[in-house]
Amino acid sequence: MIQAPPSDIRFAMNIQFMNVAVTLIEQRVTPFANLLTRSQHITAMRDSFALAMPFVIVGSLMVPLIFPPFAISGAWYLAIRPMLLPTFELTIGLIALIIAFGASASLGKQYQLPERLSGLTGCLAFLVFIGFKESAGSNLFLGGMGIFSALISSFYSVEVIRLFYRKGWCIRLPDEVPIMTRNGFQLLAPLLVIMLSITVVNAGLKLHTGMILPELISEALRPLIIASDTLTALLISLLICNLLWFIGIHGALIITGIMNPFWMTYLFENQQALANSITPLPHIYLQGFWDFYLLIGGIGSTLPLVFMALRSRSRQLKSVGKIGLIPSLFNINEPILFGFPIILNPLFLIPFIGVPMINACIAWYLTHLGVLDRAVAMLPWSMPAPLGAAWTANGSWKNMFMCLFAFFNAWMIYRPFFKVYERQLAESEAR
Q1: Residues 6+ apart with CB under 8 A from 100
Q2: pLDDT tens-digit profile of 340-354?
Q3: Are 188 and 261 in the same domain?
């Protein structure tokens, strides 16, 4: 009887082990992920940050001009800089107000409430929440410091509106009245309750603690904000995201939905530190770190696989590589994930999870040691990774080279797994 070589036996055992791992992931992780995906509040958070994204990007584009990475002298720059400041201040500086509108409108739409009126109510509730016009510090909460307050006040206001609508505690007009007028009168009672209740709560807290509710929230969340800007938090969020993607669930929607409030707060604090010439900047784990070190070519840093596939002996891999080349350059890798496939393919489980985590550790420690620069801008995730890594850190060439190193590292780790898979497909196609 002919016995299989020991290497083939070990390979078969490894494949069997990874199949068991894939099954366990499907059974344990999928139900929880589906629950988060269906969460209306998570969806509202995600929608609000998607709405705020263009304003943040435009404000971030002003950062290199207002806070240049090198000294600029000349009367022309002193004349231009004040003209650029309003664009920066009215985008980044009002981001919490934009998020308050987006979160309220999205949640109202999901509850089948008037979308625009829900959004405007969320904005007014947020302004009352932060004591707008009552204290000089309220303007701080309109920017990155007020993001959590914006989400809380938005969710509270929409839930009150929903309660009043469900119980019928509203002024109802005949159907002959125009719909905008009817919706406006229906909103009167819940709007009054929302505004007065927030005012009373803030007045009570101010009397007993000397602080309004947003200030207390900021103090309470400070340890959580600090804890979420650690290597441990980075690796956990990365592991969850990639595991979800591996079983076919869009993990980035869940992780970015949860992390966006923290990332936006980090961005605001880094920009404030940059404006005040404070070094080093306080935060490492921003969206720029996530997008341009860990998503090179898309989730799992799969861009090297595209170039390997283009030179593959397998017709299937070569065709997938041709289809996926252009999208992967802009960090869109669904053709690779579903075309190879990588999703639910035990062969790629280890590199798909391991590559971004190894690159995360390297980039984190290099940033912590001051070798790499920290992010001060938010850019579209679809920007090619080396360019995005440099631009998000105010034109840092060191960050660009770190991104190229991460690509090389991903290539070396993916290579042996790719060769095994290529051999399997080539043998199958030859039969």
Answers
A1: 48, 122, 123, 125, 126, 150, 151, 153, 154
A2: 889 888 889 899 999
A3: no
Tell me the pLDDT tens digit for each residue of 272-325. 898 888 889 999 999 999 999 999 999 999 999 999 999 998 999 999 999 999
Q: Half-sphere exposure of residue 209, counting CA atoms within 13 Å on the CB side?
A: 13
298: left (phi > 0), else alpha (psi -120 to 50), else beta? Answer: left
308 with 210, same domain: the answer is: no
In a domain, 52, yes or no: yes
Q: Residue 246 in contact with residue 353, Cβ under 8 Å? A: yes
* Domain limit, last residue, from 173, 200, 220: 220
Q: How far apart are CA 337 and CA 44, in angstroms?
A: 27
* Helix spans in 133-230 (H): 138-141, 147-167, 179-209, 213-228
* Sign of torsion over alpha carbons 24, 28, 30, 33: negative
Phi-psi region of 393 (alpha: psi -120 to 50; beta: other; left: phi over 0): alpha
Please give the residue range of the domain that contains residue 141. Answer: 41-220
Same domain, 112 and 240: no
| pTM score of the predicted model | 0.84
Residue 212 sits in the same domain as residue 289:
no
DSSP one-letter code for 5:
P
